[in-house]
């Protein structure tokens, strides 16, 4: 699956939100990039909806076609479409690895998953978009435990707050998925209702 590989700080500055997490360059210049970055931008309903969609898309590292499929799946499910959409994005395996504190960023988590370092319920999974579910157990492969990224993750694990729907056991490099997250447990500065409005007009 294709992914955006360009500069994330530029996207963060354009959308006005830190998409990476602890991005020092964004903190230094939290205004839009380019010659006219500090000029006032004309607000519109469409612009606000598009911006919220782009925030979510770039945060989770998903291309437009795949993001639209997530929206369609969210619309089919019972409950609020916006909540369902964020839940689907949050339950991606690469995001769970990041949320558990086993990777520095979502991009880093994606790389670790693609390289086959994780098992879900005892089976090797190397698909970043794999949907984890309640009661899943995610382990770092035994052969990978002494690799530098996982040694660093164990030593620095206390620096990251793990959401309540997950439980990380750094000594065993294991993640327990207690449940699928509800909206209140998803810390993301996105107005998901605007994303729903954006797609419902199409």
Question: Care to describe what's here?
Answer:
By secondary structure, this protein is of the alpha+beta class. Helices cover 42% and strands 8% of the residues. The protein has nine helices and five strands. The protein has a five-stranded antiparallel beta sheet with strand order 2-1-3-5-4, covered by helices on one side. Strand 1 (118-120) and strand 2 form a beta hairpin. The chain starts with 7 loop residues before the first helix and ends with a helix. The model has no long low-confidence stretch (mean pLDDT 87).
What profile does the largest beta sheet have? 5 strands, antiparallel
Strand order of the largest sheet: 2-1-3-5-4
**What is the tally of helical segments?**
9
- The overall strand count is 5
Topology:
Blueprint: H1 8-15, H2 24-28, H3 45-60, H4 64-76, H5 81-90, H6 93-99, H7 106-114, E1 118-120, E2 123-124, E3 137-140, H8 148-155, E4 166-169, E5 174-177, H9 192-200
Antiparallel strand pairs: 1-2, 1-3, 3-5, 4-5
Helix pairs in contact: 1-3, 3-9, 4-5, 5-9, 6-7
